[in-house]
Design brief:
The chain is mainly α and 359 residues long. The protein has a domain of 229 residues. Helix content is 68%, strand content 4%. It has 14 helices and six strands. A two-stranded antiparallel ribbon has the order 1-2. It has a two-stranded antiparallel ribbon with strand order 3-4. The relative contact order is 0.16. The C terminus is likely disordered.
Length: 359
């Protein structure tokens, strides 16, 4: 038997190294404080959201600026069904599917009247939908108090599996895990499931139909694709991932309010998809992680850097952080218009614009 037969395939070694890194990451981050573990958790939540939006924008080529609305629907579904607000405390296996289903219905409601819209017009309608949902959540406190208005909903139940709670410290196999560390492992498991579902969707008949609509909707109709139903399915599937992410967000935070679901969040999620590479799952994951972590890294690094260089803080760290962040985005889009890690076909054709094929 040759030596090559004893060696593991390169892909297996790579997967093993990634698994080891993911397991070790929360413990390494905890040495710098639990805040960094929470930042990693939010980065994974943004991966959920970016992968969901990638179905709509990257695969189907539909510009959506109101995606944060589905995140809000999932979060408020968990808050209403697992808090003292209505006296309900349903288990996680019931709430997450309900939240995904509610977000899915919201996606269909958004998609139905917008099927014939394209480009800027579609962007404006979806933007309006996102703002409508946020305003509804802000005002549904009278005459019947459903969302508690701008004050939000507090004392939301954490994720519980049986008697095991993901809030607070626990000792497992001799290791003491904090709440954020436990949520980290839960989020990684859910993220792997979401990635597998996305990969299966992308390579399925439905995924190819979405890509056909993205490239040329008229041609897709000509070959027998029911573009109406396929578009609605894209909105529904993308929204369901946002609903799941929203539910986990509410459980992690223990509090939700309308301010968490502003327009800037929708823009950030869209930027993650575009920056990473539309339609390419590894690129979207990369874009989500970078845009989630980079602002926080700048938040902690800008002030010490000014102290080191100038002996004092000359510019407000928050303003300088966003300035550097925005400049980095502009430079990337200037020199890598297809994204940091574009899909092979987009890299070959150099067409990052999903609307260009319809001109």
């Amino acid at each position: 038997m040759s030596i090559k037969n004893w060696l593991l395939p390169r892909s297996t070694v790579g997967i093993g190294l990634i698994a080891i890194a993911l397991i070790a990451l929360p413990f390494a981050l905890a040495t710098g404080g639990q805040a960094w573990v929470r930042i990693a958790n939010f980065a994974i939540l943004y991966v959920f959201l970016a992968l969901g939006l990638n179905i709509v924008v990257g695969l189907a080529g539909l510009l959506d600026l109101g995606y944060i609305a589905f995140y809000a629907v999932g979060a408020y579904t968990w808050a209403l069904l697992a808090s003292p607000h209505f006296g309900l405390h349903l288990p996680v296996w019931a709430i997450l599917p309900i939240g995904a289903a509610c977000a899915c219905v919201a996606g269909v409601l958004l998609g139905s009247p917008t099927l014939k819209l394209r480009g800027d017009y579609l962007a404006i309608v979806t933007l309006g939908f996102g703002e409508i949902v946020r305003i509804f959540m802000n005002n549904l406190n009278a005459p019947i108090n459903i969302t508690n208005g701008a004050q939000g909903i507090t004392l939301i139940d954490p994720v519980k599996i049986g008697d095991f709670s993901f809030a607070g410290n626990s000792t497992i196999f001799g290791l003491t895990l904090s709440g954020p560390q436990k949520y980290y492992f839960l989020l990684v498991a859910l993220a792997l499931l979401v990635i597998v579902v996305n990969l299966r969707l992308q390579n399925s008949r439905i995924g190819r139909a979405w890509q056909a609509i993205r490239e040329d909707e008229i041609a897709a109709k000509a070959v027998g694709i029911n573009t109406r139903n396929v578009k609605l399915l894209a909105f529904a599937m993308g929204a369901s991932f946002g609903g799941i992410a929203g539910g986990v967000f509410a459980a992690m935070q223990g509090f939700v309010s309308p301010e968490s679901f502003s327009l800037i969040e929708s823009v950030m999620i869209l930027a993650m998809v575009v920056l990473g590479g539309m339609g390419h799952i590894p690129g979207v994951i990369l874009g989500a992680v970078l845009l989630a972590i980079l602002p926080e890294a700048l938040r902690y690094g800008v002030a010490p850097l000014q102290q080191l260089l100038f002996g004092k803080v000359l510019v407000d760290p928050e303003s300088l952080r966003m300035l550097i962040f925005g400049l980095a985005l502009v430079l990337v889009m200037r020199f890598k218009p297809a994204g940091l890690w574009p899909a092979p076909e987009r890299k070959a054709h150099g067409n990052p614009n999903p609307e260009e094929g319809r001109a």
